[in-house]
Write a structure and sequence with these properties.
mainly alpha, about 60% helix, 2 strands, single chain
């Protein structure tokens, strides 16, 4: 009786048991369902992005500089809409980040310096928001540990015998 090379194993997402495709062998981690494969892919991408955060930041800044220089060489001034369209931030973050008078700053210091300053400002803004969020979580944890019983003020009306 020929023996299978791959044995049954649980899916890393839904935990259902499956027999892996013999062509994939030990590399197959999910049962093959589209939802499981998408979730596994998203999980691995997020893990890669966490491990390679510096690479992603450098690539983003490099791409922004290349776009800014190419637009400036073409004689087109980058508008606020162009700069925020490719920004890797959430809508609420970009809405709360102060908008700079780009055209005036660009005339004074140049395109590349403007892109670098905006990038540094966004990074600083994001890190400050993260610190505030962590402090708020710690404050809430400390507040939960406070006693919840009410203290008597001493002004309660005494009842008769």
């Amino acid at each position: 009786m020929p023996r299978r090379k791959s044995k049954k194993r649980p899916c890393r997402i839904c935990r259902k048991w499956f027999i892996p495709d013999p062509r994939a062998g030990d590399r197959q981690k999910t049962c093959g369902d589209q939802k499981c494969m998408r979730k596994w892919h998203a999980k691995k991408c997020a893990e890669w992005n966490r491990k390679n955060r510096k690479y992603a930041q450098e690539k983003y800044l490099h791409d922004k500089l290349v776009i800014a220089v190419s637009q400036n060489d073409a004689g087109k001034k980058p508008s606020v809409a162009d700069s925020t369209a490719n920004a890797p931030v959430s809508v609420s973050h970009s809405a709360s980040f102060p908008q700079l008078p780009r055209s005036l700053i660009q005339e004074v210091i140049g395109v590349q310096q403007l892109v670098i300053i905006e990038y540094a400002g966004r990074q600083l803004f994001r890190s400050v928001k993260e610190v505030i969020k962590r402090q708020r979580i710690e404050f809430n944890k400390d507040a939960e540990q406070l006693p919840t019983t009410r203290q008597a003020r001493g002004d309660s009306v005494s009842r008769g015998p």
